[in-house]
Automatic annotation (TrEMBL):
It comes from the Eukaryota. Residues 1-32 have a biased composition (Polar residues). It is found in: Mitochondrion inner membrane. GO terms for cellular component: mitochondrial inner membrane. Its EC number is 3.4.24.-. This is Mitochondrial inner membrane protease ATP23. Belongs to the peptidase M76 family. GO terms for molecular function: metal ion binding; metalloendopeptidase activity. The lineage of its organism: Eukaryota, Fungi, Fungi incertae sedis, Mucoromycota, Mortierellomycotina. It comes from Linnemannia gamsii. GO terms for biological process: mitochondrial protein processing; mitochondrial proton-transporting ATP synthase complex assembly. Residues 1-50 are annotated as: Disordered. It is an enzyme of class 3 (hydrolase). Keywords: Hydrolase, Membrane, Metal-binding, Metalloprotease, Mitochondrion, Mitochondrion inner membrane, Protease. InterPro entries: Peptidase_M76_ATP23 (IPR019165).
Amino acid sequence: MAPTTQTQEAPLQPTATSQAPKPTESSPTTAAPQAGGGSASEKEPKEQKAFERWTRTLSLITGIGLSQEEFQAEIDKIERKKCELRKEQLIKTSPGVRFMMNNLVKSGCPLTKNMMECGPCDNTKAGGFSKDHGILLCQNGFFSKKHQEHTMIHEMIHMYDHCVFNVDWDNLRHHACSEVRAAALGGDCNWTREVRRGFYTFTKQHQECVKRRATLSVQGNPKCPSRDAAEKAVNAVFESCYNDTRPFDEFY
């Protein structure tokens, strides 16, 4: 979706010696080391830290011992770390992500890492693009790495459109065209994604999915007065924008 739209890495054996003399009061002895190579006093901090990690993990699982704010903060931290790790992996390995990043460079709008951030969103969104702030990846909105990959490509298509076609996001037809292209090219409407949503047909499934997804996104535009207005904008631009696969040669 567009801004304004809210669219993993030999010891030696001792030899026998003569019996050692018994220690006397004037000859101090040293304590034998504990098994494992460390003294009891050295082990205590390690065991304490291990216990603290265990209790923290238990608290996260059960929620016991944490306030609602502390519990949510811990969940946010875990989700952000996972999202950022996937993002770095996809930037290095995903053909679609790398293709879009290269084309953004060619278009004069290079995407830097600080222009694609992970953050929490409401449960209806997976990502968004803002002409002023870049791309937001909804760290709590992904059900798989592939889902995050599709979202990254989707939002980069919005960024590409904004750079190349000078999109006016307040214009519903402009917005609709970019949403149609992003839904068609970003992987949002592949067959497995549609089955997961409970939508599947034997004819024109891809086109119907693109229309539905684009309409939902345009409907979220603050300038859009109604769903009917969103549908009209999508229908008006659908044929030309659906067939415009730039910068891809065909649907990704």
